[in-house]
Design goal:
By secondary structure, the protein is mainly beta. It has three domains: 85 residues, Immunoglobulin-like; 126 residues, Immunoglobulin-like, CATH 2.60.40; 121 residues, L,D-transpeptidase catalytic domain-like, CATH 2.40.440.10. The chain contains four helices and 28 strands. Strands 2-9-8-4-5 form a five-stranded mixed β-sheet, with no helix packed on it. The N terminus and C terminus are likely disordered. This is L,D-TPase catalytic domain-containing protein.
């Protein structure tokens, strides 16, 4: 979501009559008469909801249709006269309150438009519905004030499937602003997850401001969104990328495009291979327990240090002192990337949640949606997952020059975002 576009003003053009010298011998008292000016174009302004409409969702927007004028002001007030701030949609089709409205409440709105010389004002009023019984849980994997790696997607999840018929409406209420500006697209990984990214990794130092404005939004089958969620987060000032090659069984670490470290690794053995593809570090834990008791296959329960999650299915980068002799030589893990204790510490201290990790050559492709898999799709594939039309300029964007680190620009603060966490499979090691 970029900066909101202002309406242009349509001004009436006035014909200008230029007097000509007389050569016909008219009498001294004759005067040339001015041609009549054309009437200014008629202004029109129509609003929705229509007057006194009842039982509307608390996600209601003020629809505005205007001709021969531009919107000058929108004043939305509750029953006590308290004004509610908001902003126009890009293109000016509607005005969106900055927060959800209250349930079972009455509102009035007055809109003024002008062509620079004349103004037209219209008003309407409406009331909202009672709080619905059937609500869909929503969550966002972006937390206020956090710093993330350059591949961190914006991920919004739902506790229930969103039908295809409702996805465009849901997507239209998901707003992302980036500073500096980097346009992106939403992609439905499934009916329970939608993901946002740009054509390329975020520029280092980018500020992401996100609003999932879903409280009270109809989501199909008589269900409504549970909450609005907001977060403003920063992308790290450096681009850190991990490339893992099964061919030589090493992890290469690149900082701003320059290789800074290489370390031996042991990947998943033949019966439990690691996934090949571009993943994103999802979570970091200094210590955790891997427990597969009760699961098919090998049974174990072991304490793990310096673990960084890559998939919901249980693939991690982590310290594995028991496999140091195998690292760089053979694959012996249950799917994870085993490194030495010292290398695990170094990675843990230098990486961010949101850093990209690309594994090559294992022969098993990363499963779509098994983690933050937005970057495992080409841009051409990614844009196909939007429920809304994608602007032409984003269908085939010009590749950007690799960005250099830059300081972050200011962004407005917002409330903390809650997350809905799927129930991942037990991790493997």
């Amino acid at each position: 979501m970029g900066a909101l576009r202002r309406f242009g003003l349509v001004a009436a053009a006035a014909a200008v009559l230029v007097p000509l010298g007389s050569c016909t011998g008219e009498s001294a008292g004759s005067k040339e008469q001015a041609a009549p000016q054309p009437a200014p174009p008629a202004q029109t302004l129509e609003l929705t909801p229509v007057a006194e409409q009842k039982d509307l969702p608390v996600s209601t927007e003020i629809g505005i249709t205007v001709a021969n004028a531009g919107v000058r002001s929108v004043a939305l007030a509750d029953a006590k006269g308290r004004l509610i701030p908001g902003r126009m949609r890009p293109g000016g089709s509607a005005w969106i309150p900055d927060r959800p409205l209250d349930y079972k409440s009455r509102y009035s709105v007055t809109v003024t438009a002008t062509d620079g010389r004349r103004a037209i004002t219209k008003s309407t009023s409406f009331s909202t519905m009672a709080e619905p019984q059937r609500q869909v849980g929503t969550g966002m994997y972006l937390f206020d004030g956090n710093t993330y790696g350059v591949a961190m997607p914006v991920v919004v999840e739902f506790s229930e499937q969103i039908p295809e018929s409702a996805r465009a409406q849901v997507e239209s209420r998901l707003f992302v602003t980036t500073t500096p500006a980097q346009p992106g697209v939403w992609h439905w990984m499934s009916g329970r997850q939608v993901t946002y990214r740009a054509p390329e990794y975020w520029k280092p130092g980018t500020v992401l401001s996100v609003r999932a404005a879903l409280k009270g939004l109809p989501m199909g089958e008589g269900r409504f969104g549970d909450e609005d969620r907001k977060a403003t987060a920063k992308i790290a000032d450096e681009k850190l990328e991990l490339i893992v090659k099964n061919s030589n069984k090493h992890i290469e670490v690149f900082r701003n495009g320059k290789k800074v470290k290489s370390m031996p690794v042991s990947l998943g053995k033949a019966s439990t291979p690691s996934s090949s593809g571009t993943m994103v570090i999802m979570d970091k834990q200094e210590s955790t327990i891997f427990d597969t008791t009760g699961e098919p296959g090998d049974q174990y329960r072991v304490a793990i240090q310096y673990a960084q999650r890559l998939t919901w299915g249980g693939e991690f980068i982590h310290s594995a002192p028991w496999s140091v002799g195998d690292q760089g030589n053979r694959n012996v893990s249950h799917g994870c990337l085993n490194v030495s204790y010292g290398n695990a510490v170094w990675l843990f201290q230098n990486t961010h949640v949101g850093d990209p990790v690309t594994v090559k050559g294992t022969g098993v492709k990363l499963e779509r949606g098994n983690g933050f898999t937005a970057w495992d799709l080409s841009w051409k594939e990614f844009v196909k997952g939007s429920a809304l039309p994608v602007p032409q300029e984003l269908l085939d964007p010009v590749p950007a020059v690799a960005p250099s680190p830059s300081p972050s620009a200011g962004a407005s603060a917002s409330a903390s975002a809650a997350a809905v966490t799927p129930s991942p499979s037990d991790p493997t090691n």
